[in-house]
């Protein structure tokens, strides 16, 4: 049973990836990568002596922004486009459960986001090597945790696209991807200065919102820290898996009642 479901999920994910490649979505990632290389070449022309910290911080910020945008665009359109093109119903008649359909679409969006991340990460690594700037072993952990964060972001995009329109889902996902750190700090301040119901509400809201800043090792890479402990990575992987499960369950709750 589990093996059959895995085959279904893999097939749906592969179809999503191939469809995106046919639409030349990854060409956008390629163009953005060329812009990264051009920027690196400009810095190389003027020299980067004394600018290593700035170069690493700016490059990693670009990776975070571009990978987040790609993940949101990939995930928020998966379900709405299948419904709009009326291809969802034939897929579900094979038979494929609606929950399996969502998981397959999520895996496809996550795979595409990771492909874009690998492309951006490889460009930055090559740029740093060419300019003699060391990123250290922690850079591998940075990319790994970034991939986990993109998984949560893709699950969020799928969930929002089931409960709202595709444009609204895209906007909300982008806002949450950059704003949860600020929201989280505000909720922690409210929790620390409140009592009773207000404190419980703030704590619950903090736990419910995916805190993408927890996956961010950008400053540690920029300052050349050693790799973080393995239990931290495993803990964040469990945190990401829990949020993905909850978000996909919320998406499934809506999708089960959605007219196709």
Number of domains: 1
Number of strands: 0
Return the average pLDDT rounded to an integer.
81
**Percent of residues in helical segments?**
over 70%
- Give the end-to-end Cα distance, rounded to a whole number of Å: 26 Å
Brief account:
81% of the residues lie in helices and 0% in strands. It has eleven helices and no strands. The longest helix has 33 residues.
Describe this structure in words.
The chain is mostly helical and 260 residues long. The protein has one domain. The protein is 81% helix and 0% strand. The protein has helices at 2-22, 25-46, 52-76, 78-84, 88-92, 98-130, 138-163, 166-193, 197-208, 218-222, 230-255. Helix 1 packs across helix 6 (98-130), helix 6 packs antiparallel against helix 7 and helix 7 (138-163) packs parallel to helix 11 (230-255).
């Amino acid at each position: 049973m589990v093996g059959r479901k895995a085959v279904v999920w893999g097939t749906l994910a592969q179809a999503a990836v191939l469809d995106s490649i046919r639409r030349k979505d990854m060409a956008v990632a390629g163009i953005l990568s060329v812009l990264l290389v051009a920027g690196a070449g400009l810095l190389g022309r003027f020299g980067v002596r004394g600018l290593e910290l700035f170069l690493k911080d700016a490059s990693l910020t670009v990776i975070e922004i571009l990978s987040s945008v790609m993940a949101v665009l990939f995930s928020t359109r998966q379900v709405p486009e299948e419904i709009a093109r009326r291809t969802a119903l034939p897929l579900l008649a094979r038979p494929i459960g609606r929950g399996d359909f969502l998981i397959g679409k999520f895996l496809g969006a996550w795979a595409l986001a990771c492909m874009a991340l690998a492309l951006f990460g490889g460009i930055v690594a090559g740029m740093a090597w060419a300019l003699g700037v060391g990123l250290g072993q922690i850079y591998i952990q940075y990319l790994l945790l970034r991939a986990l964060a993109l998984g949560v972001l893709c699950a969020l995009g799928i969930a929002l696209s089931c409960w709202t329109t595709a444009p609204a889902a895209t906007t909300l996902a982008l806002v949450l991807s950059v704003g949860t750190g600020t929201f989280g700090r505000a909720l922690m301040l409210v929790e620390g200065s409140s009592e009773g119901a207000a404190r419980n509400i703030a704590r619950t809201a903090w736990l419910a919102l995916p805190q993408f800043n927890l996956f961010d090792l950008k400053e540690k890479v920029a300052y050349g820290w050693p790799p973080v402990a393995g239990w931290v990575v495993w803990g964040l992987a469990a945190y990401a898996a829990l949020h993905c499960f909850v978000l996909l369950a919320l998406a499934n709750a809506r999708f089960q009642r959605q007219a196709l």
